Amino acid sequence: MAAPMRIRQPRNFRDRKDVLNELSDAELIKRYRLDRAGIMLVTDLVRERITNQTERSRAVTPEMKVLVTLRYLATGKMQLCSGDDLGPSQQTVSRVITETLFALSRNEILSQYFKFPVTLENCHTKAVDFQQIAGFPGVIGTIDGTHVRITAPKEFEAEYVNRKRYHSINVQVVFDATYRILDIVARWPGSVHDARILRESSLNQVVFGRGMVPDGYHLLGDSGYPCKKWLLTPYLRPQPGPQSDYNRAHKKTRNVVERGIGQLKRRFHVLHGEIRVTPTAKVCQIIKVCAMLHNICKDRNIRIPAPEDIDEPAEDIEEDYDNAPLAVQQPPLPPVAPRPREGLLYRDEFVNLHFE
C-alpha cells in the first residue's frame, strides 16, 4: 500500500512593521538610538555587504537588518528584537545581528569614525576645549579602562576574571572634551591591567611612540598608568600649592572619560549587563560597534534618551548613570623596577610652569 502523500504546509510569514515611515524621529531614537537619517546612514555603510542575493522567502532588507541590530544594542535583549513588530523570527534575528555586526566592525568602517588628533590644528582645538573645563593646558584626550561583563568563555576562562571576580573584557577608551571617542581598544581579557593594554596599544607604540602628536600635547590618566611626557597622571602624595592645584585640575578634567563611559553604556544598554554571546571576538565587535554608533550620535547631536523615556523593561535600567563608577579603577601595578624618571621629571616641570 502506497504511503499517503504529504501535503506541504504554506509558510506563515509575520507582518513586518515599516517603522522607518511609521515612527517619528523621537520614537526611533527612543527605540533604536538613531533618527531616520542616522539609521539610513548606518545602513548605507554596509548595504552592499548585507544585501541578500535573492528575494526568495521575503529576504530581510538591509534596513531591517540594521534596525534589528540597533534594537539589540540599545536593549541588550535579542527577544525584544523578534517581539518588536519587526517580523523576523528569533533564529533570523540571531543570524541578522551576527551578519550586521561583522559588516559594521570592519576596520574600513570603524576608521571613518575614530579620528585621533595628530595635526597641530586638531590638537590645538581639542586642547582649547579641555582647557575650558578646569584650566588644564595641552590636553587632547582622557584615557581609562572599563570592564564589560561577559559569560564565562570556554577557552582561557581564568584569564577573563577581573579583580572584582567576574568575567569581562577590559576596554581602553579615550574621550575628547565633547565626549566623542577618539580611540578604543576592545580585545583584552578582564585580568589584564590597564597599563599593559596601553603599553601594547598603537597609541603607545605608534601614535605617541613615533612622534605623530606634536610636542606639548598630552593625555590624562589615573595613577594606574605610568607617567610619561605624553600621559600625565596625578601625584599620589601631592604637596600643598602647585601640586595640589595640578591634582584638582587633573581630576576635574579627567572626569570627562568617566562621564563619557557612562554616556556610552547608557546609550547602548547591551554594555550594562552581561553580554551573552560567544565567542569573545563577537563581544569585542559589539563593543567597537557601540562606540562607533556613539560617535555617529554625537555627530548628529542626538541626545541620550532619559531613563524614563527608554523603551525597555524598567528593572533592567541602571539608575544614576552620571555618578555610577562605571569605569573600574585599578591600583598601580606592583613595582618590579624603579618607575621611569623621565615622565615624573617632565610632570614636575609641567607643574612648575603652569601651576605656580
Describe the protein:
It is a single chain. The longest helix is centred in the last third of the chain and has 26 residues, at 242-267. Strand 2 (168-175) and strand 3 form a beta hairpin. Helix 4 (62-75) packs across helix 6 (90-104) and helix 8 (120-134) packs across helix 11. It is built from 13 helices and 5 strands. It has 356 residues and is α/β, with parallel strands linked by helices. 39% of the residues are buried.
Summarize it.
It is found in: Cytoplasm; Nucleus. With 356 residues, the chain is α/β, with parallel strands linked by helices. The chain has helices at residues 19-22, 25-32, 36-50, 62-75, 78-82, 90-104, 107-110, 120-134, 194-200, 202-207, 242-267, 280-299, 341-354, and strands at residues 139-149, 168-175, 181-189, 218-220, 231-232.
Strand content: 5-15%
Q: Mind describing the biggest β-sheet?
A: 5 strands, mixed
**N- to C-terminal distance:** 102 Å
Q: Tell me the helix content.
A: 40-55%
Task: Output mean pLDDT.
Answer: 87
Rg over CA atoms: 23 Å
The number of helices is: 13
The SSE string, one letter per element, is HHHHHHHHEEEHHEEHHH
Secondary-structure-based class equals alpha/beta
Main sheet strand line-up: 3-2-1-4-5
GO molecular function, one term: nuclease activity
GO cellular component, one term: cytoplasm
Pfam family, one: DDE_Tnp_4
Keywords: Cytoplasm, Hydrolase, Metal-binding, Nuclease, Nucleus
For this entry, give a set of tags.
43% helix; alpha/beta; elongated; single chain; five-stranded mixed beta sheet; 13 helices; 356 residues
Q: Secondary structure elements and their pairing?
A:
Layout: H1 19-22, H2 25-32, H3 36-50, H4 62-75, H5 78-82, H6 90-104, H7 107-110, H8 120-134, E1 139-149, E2 168-175, E3 181-189, H9 194-200, H10 202-207, E4 218-220, E5 231-232, H11 242-267, H12 280-299, H13 341-354
Parallel strand pairs: 1-4, 4-5
Antiparallel strand pairs: 1-2, 2-3
Helix pairs in contact: 3-4, 3-6, 4-6, 6-12, 8-11
